[in-house]
Amino acid sequence: MARQLTKKDCDTAIGNLLEGPGYHLFESVFDAEEVAEANRIIHHFSDQASGATHFHGAHADKIHLQRRVWNLLNKGQVFVDMVQHPAVMQVFAKILGRQFILGSFAANRLLPGAPGQEPHIDYPYWDMHDLDEFPAGINAGFHMNCQSLISLHEFTPENGATALVPGSQKRGLYPQADHFAAEAIQLCCPPGSLLLFTGLIWHCSMPNNSAAERTSVLGQYLPKFVKPMEDLQASIDPAVEAAASPALRQLLGLDLRYPELLEEAEAGNAEGRSAAKG
Ligand SMILES: O=C(O)CCC(=O)C(=O)O
Predict the structure, then answer these.
(1) Ligand 1 nearest atom to the CA of residue 204, by list position
(2) pLDDT tens, 171-230?
């Protein structure tokens, strides 16, 4: 069973994300059984090379070594539990607002020899290298993305442990590869660890130069007003939705009001008013 974290642990993480280095690592949160079950399912869905991946740079010949499995919520209870770990819910509520939602829950599986990613920042910032895509004055004043990353293997320098630049989330800028290389550190951790970070932090997965695979589960969390990256409401299995806890309902945005058909509601009200008069 997953390890529960204290309020003090969560407060420390909130401080680190908001005012500190922009990330917090909780080591060994998910147990060996959960990690094995998650790996088993991810293998099942990615034994064949998958198409769409992200930030793979100039390594087109090696894309098949970097495999994504999307929409994990439909693929096993272990992912339904991981996505709403109480520490994730507590920490991100303070950063993204009480009714924050999920944008994606997917796996990044790097086979031996997989290349590293380009340094990047995450959706909805991921094309911020072109500022014309964004409202004037976009900056790091508040956060429109928080990420969770669960390590499903031990992460080491050799197998491509996630690299990031502490404090870069305050810059509100898209990373340049040479600046990233000069400042980045790698986060090594045991399997089942839970890394939380803000999407504006410069980061990427590094090359897997080991003889074994290395997998992460990536959760994308957004304020209620940012459009999710995966259309989870359209793709969620009705059985998963029917069994959803209040936290999962919140993450799926099932109880958010807008957009609504306000004109029809208005017409209905007007009809009601004239019927009452007449
Ligand atoms: O797996 C990792 O270490 C990070 C992956 C990542 O940042 C991404 O795919 O956007």
Answers:
(1) 7
(2) 999 999 999 999 999 999 999 999 999 999 999 999 999 999 999 999 999 999 999 999
Structure tokens at 179: 């600046």
Distance from residue 103's CA to the centre of ligand 1 (Å): 15
Adjacent-strand bridge partners of 150: 194, 217
Cα 44 from chain centroid?
A: 21
Q: How far is the CA of 148 from the centre of ligand 1 (A)?
A: 10
Domain 7-277, what fold?
A: Jelly Rolls (2.60.120)
Q: Is 76 left (phi over 0), alpha (psi -120 to 50) or beta?
A: left
Residue among 145, 37, 17 nearest 82 (CA)? 37
